[in-house]
Amino acid sequence: MKQDKIELHIKIPNQTKYLSLIGKISEELAVQLQNYSGDRESLANHVNVVLTEALVNAIRHANADNPEEVVEVRIIVTEDELVMQVFDHGKGFDMNGVSQSLPNNREQLEDHGRGLFIMRSLMDSVDYYPVEGGNVLEMRKSFN
Amino acid sequence: MKQDKIELHIKIPNQTKYLSLIGKISEELAVQLQNYSGDRESLANHVNVVLTEALVNAIRHANADNPEEVVEVRIIVTEDELVMQVFDHGKGFDMNGVSQSLPNNREQLEDHGRGLFIMRSLMDSVDYYPVEGGNVLEMRKSFN
Amino acid sequence: MNLKIEESNQAVIVVVKEERLDAHNSETLKQELSRLFAEGKTKVVVDLKDVRFIDSSGLGALVSGFKNASARQSSLKISSLQSQVKSMFELTRLHRVFDIYTTIDEALETF
Amino acid sequence: MNLKIEESNQAVIVVVKEERLDAHNSETLKQELSRLFAEGKTKVVVDLKDVRFIDSSGLGALVSGFKNASARQSSLKISSLQSQVKSMFELTRLHRVFDIYTTIDEALETF
Ligand SMILES: Nc1ncnc2c1ncn2[C@@H]1O[C@H](COP(=O)(O)OP(=O)(O)O)[C@@H](O)[C@H]1O
Ligand SMILES: Nc1ncnc2c1ncn2[C@@H]1O[C@H](COP(=O)(O)OP(=O)(O)O)[C@@H](O)[C@H]1O
Description:
The complex is a heterotetramer, with 2 copies of chain A and 2 copies of chain C.
Chain A: E1 6-13, H1 19-31, H2 40-62, E2 70-77, E3 81-88, H3 115-122, E4 125-131, E5 134-142
Antiparallel strand pairs in A: 1-2, 2-3, 3-5, 4-5
Helix pairs in contact in A: 1-2, 2-3
Chain C: E1 3-8, E2 11-16, E3 20-21, H1 26-38, E4 43-47, E5 53-54, H2 56-71, E6 75-79, H3 83-91, E7 99-101, H4 104-109
One adenosine-5'-diphosphate (ADP) binds at residues 53, 57-58, 61-62, 88, 90, 93, 98, 112-113, 115-116 of chain A.
């Protein structure tokens, strides 16, 4: 038998006002994941958070807040995992060069720099690689 | 300036258990439609209803309830209209041959045959035409 | 599908405990209604208080129950429509076919 | 962004009337906090009762307010975290940085 699979692809203008739409759509998907063994409400929140973080980075860092740019999100749900991809049209960056730790030191408590930490903490894997016309940030979460 | 546009494309297994997912996603999209001058809550419900009707026809009539088939939905939102397309892989049918009236006669009150009536009533236009590999049912609703 | 079935005097109350009554779950309601009338029940109320969304298949299950009832000199009444469900009855003119009440109790009083 | 600002004795209460505190609206909160401390307010409570969702930018706006307060010998307290918001504070260890209270009143009592 073929595996059940859901594929969602959405393109939005490069504007933060669309964050909540993507967040809510991803939550609807997550609460339906019957194969996920953990708490589906938390998973829904986590998916909403990590997609928001990835989208904001694409909108602000990669696409330089240009409102006429487009951001693309792809979500694939199979029987054993959830894959989320966010495409940007920027020059890319070296994700491994970004510190894995939190910017919470007493001397230098920073008001930014927690996005990748959050994505890495809540997902099983986070990758960033070039594709035609830009780059993709890819996050995976297994259901087992 | 380029027009703001949202494009959503989703593929689901040919199973009615995914109706509510598509319905909810379409409602999330509809409540965000800032250019719609009417009541957005009703529009959200209407979009949910007509997509459900179109999907059920694709799942049952066109794809003959085969759970391994795939149904595709595309939703495009521009500044002045909402376009929804449901793709099936069936042999197609003559939509103009389907009665425009309700099957509510006292002698023959039918328990089916209201789907196209509902789609035609709630949307500005409903078309059905062949595309490569199948057919598409296309519904449009203008925001003015 | 989640249905709560209660007996009250001579009547049977079928409460649909679902947010959606659509092509995915309406077949169960249709069969349950058919079973009740076949068993000889003559007074049935279907309560839709929890239903926020109905499609043509959901309406069809109710029409099927209504036809079943009529064929057996029995009656099917409907109660507690939320506004979006009510507009689907109106759109399809089925509000003229069914006896629709605001609450279960109002429906019961009219038998 | 929807903020409700109240004064109570010497303190200012900033109630965030949004379901989401994210990169789309957190800049307004950041600027409002900055304005309050620049005006000389020394006791500020940010209440998040209505906030169901927070991202790193929302947390960042609060960190910015906290730094602003510390630099001026003032203080910023936070109240009424919903569970998913609370877990974001914990994940980013910011629950050790901020003074967090269950209600606005509890936060006020500690000034
Ligand atoms: N898509 C991207 N394109 C370019 N640079 C990026 C991208 N995503 C992240 N970065 C870089 O990585 C840094 C860390 O990102 P993050 O942890 O999300 O924190 P923040 O965005 O708050 O600075 C950013 O400041 C930015 O320099
Ligand atoms: N995608 C489709 N492929 C083939 N036949 C279809 C399709 N959609 C509708 N039909 C035909 O049109 C008829 C009327 O459809 P509809 O008004 O939705 O009512 P119902 O589906 O309840 O019969 C169906 O019974 C079916 O024969």
